[in-house]
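Narrative of activities, Objective 1.

The group set out to show that a structural description can be obtained from nothing but a protein's sequence at a throughput compatible with the screening campaign. Below is one input-output pair from the validation batch, recorded exactly as produced.
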Amino acid sequence: MPISQIFTYFMVMLGPIKILAPFVKISRGMDTLSARMLAVKGFFFASLAGVAAATLGKNTLANWGVGLPSLLIAAGLVLLLVALKSVLAQYEQPPAAPPGDSPQPSAKMFALSPLAFPIIITPYGIAAFILIDAAVPPEQNIEIYKVFLEVMVLNLVAMLFARPIIKYFSTVLIILGAVLGVLQVALAVQMILLAFRMLGVLP
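Output recorded for this entry:
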């Protein structure tokens, strides 16, 4: 599998576009330094957990006897559900804001969840990471991890500058988000069809 294609998959499933708005929402009320510390912590949690999950997941696949088509279908279904929810959410009324005096978790907990999981490290993104890592030749594994870390660095940069990006490019991000949602639906369907072809269900 070409590295450029793997980079594209990681950008769609783990990349920064989907992170910007949630990060700004999570860091609302924080000063700039606190928000940047949250971004750095989220980056480290997500990077370490992503590498660990991919390594553990690949070994678990072999131990459990789970085939790549099964993981491909699982990842495709999760991505399809999340992408459909994202697309359909554009037609829903925004939820009411929670009370201002509600208790807030610590910054460390924010960095771990929901920032690292599931905003940065999405379930379908991890499934795709495991799938790619298990499918490529052993000599290409290091390149896969490098691409993953490159995308995590892009996520960190996006979070560090999330507030000005949202402030000045909100309209562009709305358009990109809508396009990304549709592309994710198409990619999810493609993953499921590919799994069916691998199983011989489709020609």
